[in-house]
Design a protein that fits this description.
heterodimer; A: OB fold (Dihydrolipoamide Acetyltransferase, E2P); five-stranded mixed β-barrel; 8 strands; 9% helix; B: alpha/beta; two-stranded antiparallel ribbon; 13 helices; globular
Chain lengths: 142, 390
């Protein structure tokens, strides 16, 4: 018998590069979810891209979002190959359409399977994990 | 320019389907390849183009090991499970343009052993292709514990079932039909292992709404096909199977699921009309359907994408007795990825060829003349081939 503690698996934190890093840096620094926006036509987009899909401009900035959105789709994970998430099954991954237009993927918390439906109003927030990554939380509006 | 009917499948090869093979990926791929070349009545030195399984074995390695001295065309198709059927299009282009005379396409992998290694074995240094969408998946999905195909696809399957009222009994029809057909195929992993509706409904959720029995089988296997020009095919040992039309389609953006204007539009939605137009036939002319069945719900979405039923109509279509042998459109007559085994869907092409040769044994669709094969992979890429008896 080993008297070592059971191995703890840490949740994966990506090391974003390029545009993704710019996006996360702005979120971590401000504490607010940001989104990339075309500096010419104003169209918001996610994930960050080098050219605007609407007007093909390469000028952009990152702007804070309201955090308001609704459930566009979701996945209810009863099984995972990610050891760091095993203790949390069933966990729900939300696809949220933001008021600004783009959709983001985040972790829906404090909701049981069956407690969420397409169109439900939600609020999105971020939690900095390290200096380069902003984890996205999703909460149902009560 | 229409290259419909200019290329023909003249050789097929297929290893067994294993959950834990003694053979390495190169051994499996080379053995299926040699079988296909011999089946075509050819020698390796007759082959001058090779399309290999990306990440597992290169054209150069296949040529060196089999004895293919002159390669005039080598290309890799990187669309995950949509690659094999899309490769038929690439082969038809090379053949009709006179760039190649005999094309070998092969796919194979250790889809079981790579994940469930035997305790006494050494892991292979060969790794699969991480996929053309790796930057998005590792930055925007993986941090949320979303790392596997069933989870990625659930993001649109959940929306699909909610918008169209698709239920588990609909998806079950696909699983049960593939299992019935597997019993007719000695090479099917699930031959002789019955499945009932109760088995299906008591199967645990993996990523809701998908249950364990909605998911295909982790498999070690390889398959191969040889194509030549329609003219040369007349001299081949078997009845030629003509490539009448085909296409590939990529959803936009292909590397990210959630920001597609319509998340339910798959690559196959744009590819299928092009393929049927090239072939000059309609989906309703098909005598059988070999539909890429990584997951049952994806099959339902594909049936709608190819236009054999309306959007939202696949549930009714599969409940109405269409897809079993003896039905109007027998589906996955070999058992599919769900119950034969997962060979990237190239086993669908092998089975379609057997059917159109009228050599499909107990699963033969009587007097079939036309059939369709689909591919699906990565984050919703699609491919399709319309095949006909020459």
């Amino acid at each position: 018998m080993s008297d070592e503690a059971p191995k703890q698996y840490k949740k994966y934190v990506p090391q974003p590069e390029g545009l993704n890093l710019e996006l996360h840096k702005r979120a971590v620094e401000s504490g607010l979810l940001h989104i990339q926006r075309c500096a010419d036509c104003g169209r918001a987009r996610q994930p960050p891209r080098y050219y605007c899909q609407e007007c093909f401009s390469d000028s952009y900035d990152f702007v804070p979002t309201s955090g308001d959105g609704f459930i566009y789709s979701f996945a209810i994970n009863h099984f995972t190959i990610d050891r760091a998430w095993i203790d949390e099954v069933p966990y729900i991954t939300a696809v949220v359409e933001l008021a600004e237009g783009p959709r983001v993927v985040g972790a829906l918390r404090n909701v049981e399977p069956g407690g969420v439906a397409l169109g439900d109003a939600v609020t999105v927030s971020i939690e900095p994990r390290g200096e380069d990554f902003a984890f996205i939380w999703v909460d149902l509006n009560s | 320019m229409n290259i419909s009917g200019e290329a023909a499948i003249v050789g097929i090869g297929e290893t067994g389907y294993f959950r834990g093979s003694e053979q390495s990926v190169p051994e499996l791929v080379l053995s299926a390849s040699m079988e296909a070349i011999r089946d075509a009545g050819l020698k390796p030195s007759d082959i001058d183009a090779v399309i290999p399984p990306p990440g597992y074995l290169s054209t150069e390695e296949i040529a060196a090991n089999l004895g293919i001295p002159e390669v005039t065309y080598a290309v890799e198709v990187r669309m995950g499970g949509a690659s094999p059927t899309a490769s038929l299009q690439s082969a038809a282009m090379a053949l009709s343009a006179g760039i190649a005379t005999n094309v070998l396409i092969t796919f194979g992998w250790n889809g079981y052993s790579a994940f469930r290694r035997r305790p006494d074995s050494t892991p292979s240094k060969r790794k699969g292709d991480p996929g053309p969408f790796i930057d998005v998946s590792r930055n925007f999905y993986a941090p949320y514990g979303v790392r596997s195909a069933v989870q990625w696809y659930s993001m649109y399957v959940q929306r699909y079932v909610n918008l169209y009222g698709v239920g588990p009994e609909d998806a079950a029809q696909v699983a049960l039909t593939c299992r019935e057909h597997a019993h007719l195929n000695d090479k099917a992993l699930m031959a002789g292992r019955p499945m009932t509706m109760d088995d299906y409904l008591s199967s645990p959720f993996i990523t809701e709404p998908m249950r364990k029995l909605d998911c295909c089988l982790e498999t070690d296997c390889a398959t191969a096909v040889v194509l030549t020009t329609a003219d040369r095919a007349k001299d081949s040992p078997h009845h030629p199977v003509l490539w009448l039309g085909g296409a590939e389609g990529h959803p936009y953006p292909a590397d990210e699921i959630t920001n597609r204007p319509d998340m339910l539009k798959l690559g196959l939605d744009s590819a299928a009309p092009r393929a049927f137009s090239m072939a000059g036939v309609a989906p309703t002319d098909m005598d059988f359907l070999q539909i890429y069945d990584c997951f049952t719900y994806v099959v339902l979405m594909e049936l709608e994408a190819i236009g054999i039923c309306e959007k939202g109509g696949a549930g009714e279509f599969v409940r109405d007795g269409n897809i079993g042998l003896g039905g109007r459109y027998p589906l996955n007559t070999h058992g599919g990825l769900l119950s034969q085994g997962h060979c990237w869907g190239f086993n669908h092409v092998v089975e379609a060829t057997r059917q159109l040769r009228h050599d499909a044994g107990r699963a033969q669709v009587d007097n079939c003349e036309l059939g369709v094969v689909t591919g699906y992979g990565d984050l919703g890429d699609g491919s399709i081939a319309v095949l006909g008896r020459g």
